[in-house]
Amino acid sequence: MSKRSPRRRARRPRKVGIACYPTFGGSGIVATELGSQLAQRGYEVHFVSLSLPYRQNHFSQKVFFHEVVIQPYPLFQTYSPLSLALAAKMCEVAEHYDLDLMHVHYVLPFAASAYLARELVKPRRLPVVTTLHGTDITIVGQQPEFTRLTRFSIESSDKVTAVSKFLRKRTIESLDIRRPIEVVYNFVDTARFAPRKRRASVLAPSDVPVVMHASNFRQVKNIETLVQVFARLRKHVACQLVLIGDGPEKAHAENLCRELKVERHALFLGSQNLMEELLPLADVFFLPSRQESFGLVALEAMSAGVPVVASNIGGLPEVVEDGVTGFLHDPDDEVALSASIERLLTNQRLRARMGRAARRVARERFHVDDAVDHYQAIYESALR
Ligand code: GMT
Q: Are 256 and 188 a contacting pair, CB within 8 Å?
């Protein structure tokens, strides 16, 4: 006879819908990595998104993708009703696949659409878990026309999580949120993002250290300061800047590199998929953002054993330990940012020590298994 308790036997793998932006952005990456991990734990995962999420690049029988298609109709012109198409797709998938809950990443439009889907599928239950990522609160949520909708979507979710303590506080204060928000830190698969032997001359000659940056090149990433800091740094140390990603500030950054005469030392790789292969090639990862609720890519760099120089804003101090896993400064302090990168590039022992500490912190505080356990517990309590 089985010794397992009846309660334990009653538990079954769950069916979870995950809605997210599919593009190169932290929120979509977290959603996709979470989906893969849940599938490995026996969950059936249904992504609802505009296209296959970036990083969903391997096959699993447990992972399904449901594309949100906005059917053309002359009346719509360019005003495609994305939120409604999302709600309709969430509703269809929830009913057809018998979903237990919907986990949405980024408040608008996902949490608003999920609210609608939850109403539409009644009397079936479809609890909504909303994860706040950052700009959904700090930028979109602060636009006067969206504040009420953002607040309503958060308040009407069954469970709400935020990726840092900073973001939880900012959400409560700026939107006057009354309901509990649990902090579930973003996470990293430390087996995948691991230190590797540097292959000579992949990104720079083997004796030239690499300063790496990756982002979506939006204004909040402070790309102009990044280039200014690099130009200042180049006056003291021979080094190579490697920039990954694309976005509105990229052309400006390329022009500025030419103006400051460092273009030969700046390699713009554009958007890349295999960050686990690129990040370990860095000697220092540089993220001087003006806003950052967490800084997932900084964590991935840390996991790869790379110290981080970043700004001391938002959730970054919760990720990067100043003086231990890297250095934090004011995003406008070009002198201090440049001096810290120089310290790391010219002191191999310091760099190695901080790189080891960075990996240890990634393992101990941001391990993928802990975060997935936490999300699972939140799902269970949403279903109670
Ligand atoms: O950084 C961005 O502009 C993208 C944005 C997103 O929604 O994808 O990133 C936010 O979510 C990430 C994942 O939780 C966080 O690591 C980023 O810090 C956060 N970005 C900002 O707060 C600016």
A: no
